[in-house]
Design goal:
- This protein is of the alpha+beta class.
- The protein folds into four domains: 149 residues, no CATH class; 148 residues, no CATH class; 105 residues, no CATH class; 223 residues, Phosphate transport system protein phou homolog 2, domain 2 (Methane Monooxygenase Hydroxylase, Chain G, domain 1, Up-down Bundle).
- Helix 12 crosses helix 13 and helix 17 runs antiparallel to helix 18.
- It is elongated.
- This is Phosphate transport regulator.
- It comes from Derxia gummosa DSM 723.
């Protein structure tokens, strides 16, 4: 005889209701386990999962000592259209018994709400199962969660769980920070409930007026039970078991991505997941995957218990309408990126409910449509136009500004306006082609820096020449990409034109690296056919000397007198390219900042580039003077002059590009472009 049956003989049934509710909650846990066993048996028999089932964790949490469920799953096999399962009748009896036990507190109430009729019909519908055979369709009839497919034992359990939660709230003898409590064991239980509620209240405002997060707590033997009604979804009720040295919960979800999201959130808080299972079986759960897992937080005392409960409570709000948010974000960006956005939004503490209340994907589509210039076309996605990183950052910002605005009581129209401004600024930076211009400038810097290292510190000139060819090709690819982008989006044309100008800088620097490599290669005994025809000096060969037409090392090496001004010329070019990089970064950020001091800084940089160009003119003349001041072979003279000329040409082209950049920025600011310096 059950304990509550013994008490029943002593007094009114109302005295038994708390105990029967606790028994019903325990039956609820077992029923979910029985359904998992049924599905696992079919999955194993059809080869979807390994045969070595291990339900030790679930059995421990549900109080089932014997491992017969594992044997049932392991020995299941298909025979035609029937699933043969030894011990199936025992499982059927366990399901029927727990259905009746779970329904008992509801049947005791005055408002039956049809519970008895559903119970009788579903228990009768379980069938005999005595011969150990069952059709897959019969398993679906028991375990499916699709209301359009008719009633099922699974749906009945979910409905009873909701009703029992409401019944328990009415029985509560105390309120603990908003949680309904009854038959608690003492102050320790109350402290654990308060810890859970602290976490819950910290984020609960993010659900706004969405129903859910009702909490009830009671003691059941040696453990405290805390259950939370996460939302309106029938399956979204979670029961937490608190023991002296651990907190555990079993979580199931028809949506595998949401299960994985919750798994990641609790793992970040210190939880360890065990026995996670996912099955996708035709006819089960309306074709959706059904994932079940157990999270355990080991604790060495009350402080650790409270920390785990606080963390769990704070995460529950992010499960409400999570799948709806994922689907809406998935229309804006790639599906994995949509999940990443939700992860980041939860980690930032603002979630997704405000985004949904503010219009969800319609909010962002409206912002995309408001961008002129043909940036977004029909069928475009955010990540397709902006790139995954920028699109993800934008959506996280939108979710954040929506949460801040709605929590502060501001209107949705403000969120709409701020989203449009945010996207407009991002588009101005990303789709104008600034990133390609910045990449191109970085390659130019590599070229200039390499020349400076060779001329000033003796770096390998031949290696630089080889690398310079690769860098110059990478710079050319930036130009090509900019031109292709300009064909699709006219707003890119202005920056693409500047990039074309800047490519002359890369060409000049690569040519300088080539000339320097020729000089170094020939002076080290390199191949003469690598030299330009005009660089060859004919002479008379003698034994031990180079052949006719092959320059000797002394004839090709750059004169020592010219190395100083050549190095200074290279360093001045490096400085000018660095200023060019700074100018591009300021220009690409100006649409977002609009600050006058940024415009002033850009103008200052433009003048510094002009000064560098004049300085390079003088250094080019210094190279010529040095070559005339001392003995120098014609080959060395020619190589030094060409090297200096290419470096000086690079700063000339850089000055032209910087003037065009300055004029573009001034035109956007509404000022008349100035004359070239």
């Amino acid at each position: 005889m059950l304990k509550e049956d013994a008490v029943a003989s002593l007094g009114p049934a109302g005295l038994l209701l708390p105990g029967r509710i606790n028994a019903a909650l325990a039956a609820n846990d077992r029923l979910k386990f029985w359904f998992t066993v049924l599905q696992a048996a079919l999955a194993q028999a059809t080869g979807q999962t390994p045969a070595n089932a291990d339900f030790s964790r679930e059995r421990a949490l549900t109080g089932i000592a014997q491992p017969w469920p594992e044997a049932l799953v392991t020995e299941a096999r298909l025979d035609g259209d029937q699933l043969l399962v030894p011990g199936l009748a025992r499982l059927r009896d366990a399901i029927a018994a727990d259905l009746r036990l779970m329904a008992r507190p509801l049947l005791d109430t005055a408002a039956d709400a049809g519970w008895q009729a559903r119970l009788d019909r579903l228990c009768a519908g379980l069938g005999d199962w005595a011969d150990g055979a069952i059709a897959p369709a019969a398993i679906a009839a028991v375990t499916h969660g699709d209301r359009d497919a008719g009633d099922s034992a699974h749906l009945f359990v979910m409905d009873m769980h909701k009703a029992i939660n409401r019944l328990a709230a009415g029985l509560a003898t105390e309120d603990i920070d908003g949680a309904h409590g009854w038959r608690l064991g003492g102050d320790d239980d109350r402290e654990r409930v308060r810890a859970f509620m602290r976490g819950l209240h910290r984020t609960a405002a993010l659900k706004f007026d969405h129903p859910g997060l009702d909490t009830a707590a009671t003691r059941d033997g040696n453990r405290l039970l805390i259950q939370n009604d996460i939302g309106t979804n029938d399956a979204h009720v979670i029961v937490i078991h608190v023991e002296p040295a651990r907190v555990s919960l079993t979580y199931s979800d028809l949506h595998a991505p949401r299960f994985e999201f919750f798994r990641r959130r609790l793992e970040a808080a210190g939880g360890r997941w065990t026995a996670a299972r996912s099955t996708v079986t035709p006819g089960l759960n309306a074709g959706h995957s059904h994932v079940v897992g157990t999270a355990v937080f080991e604790a060495d005392g009350p402080v650790a218990l409270d920390r785990a409960l606080d963390a769990i409570g704070a995460e529950l709000v992010f499960l409400i309408d999570w799948n709806r948010a994922r689907k809406q974000l998935g229309r804006l960006v790639d599906k994995p990126l949509a999940v990443t956005v939700l992860d980041r939004a939860a980690r930032a503490g603002h979630g997704h409910m405000a985004f949904l209340r503010a219009g969800g994907d319609r909010l962002v589509f409206a912002a995309m449509q408001a961008i002129d210039g043909g940036v977004f076309r029909l069928g475009d996605t955010l990540d397709g136009v902006l790139g995954a990183e920028a699109a993800g950052d934008f959506l996280v910002q939108v979710l954040g500004l929506a949460a801040r605005a709605l929590l502060a009581g501001r209107p949705v129209s403000l969120v709409e306006d701020e989203s449009r401004v945010l996207l407009a600024r991002l588009v101005a930076r990303r789709t104008a082609g600034w990133e390609l211009l910045a990449d191109h400038a970085a390659w130019c810097h590599e070229l200039a820096r390499g020349l400076g290292d060779c001329l000033g510190h003796g770096a390998d000139a031949a290696e630089l020449a080889r690398r310079a060819r690769r860098w110059e090709r990478a710079a050319d690819e930036c130009v090509l990409a900019a031109r292709v982008g300009a064909e699709r989006q006219p707003r890119r044309a202005r920056v693409a034109h500047i990039l074309g100008r800047a490519d002359d800088v890369a060409d000049s620097l690569e040519a300088a690296a080539f000339i320097h490599g020729l000089a170094a290669g020939a002076s080290a005994g390199g191949r003469p056919d690598a030299l330009p025809p005009g660089a060859l000096v004919l002479g008379t060969a003698t034994p031990g000397e180079a052949s006719p037409g092959v320059p000797t090392p002394s004839a090709t090496a750059l004169p020592d007198a010219a190395r100083g001004p050549l190095h200074a010329l290279a360093e001045a070019t490096v400085g000018a390219v660095r200023d060019w990089i700074r100018a591009i970064e300021i220009a690409r950020q100006l649409p977002a900042t609009g600050r006058a001091d940024d415009t002033d800084a850009l103008l200052d940089i433009s003048w510094r580039i002009a000064a560098a160009e004049r300085r390079c003119d003088e250094l080019w003349r210094d190279v010529r003077r040095a070559l005339l001041a001392g003995p120098c072979s014609p080959v060395a003279h020619q190589l030094a002059v060409e090297l200096a000329g290419h470096l000086e040409d690079a700063t000339d082209h850089l000055l032209a590009a910087s003037h065009e950049l300055r004029d573009l920025v001034l035109a956007d600011a509404g000022a008349a472009p100035g004359a070239s310096a």
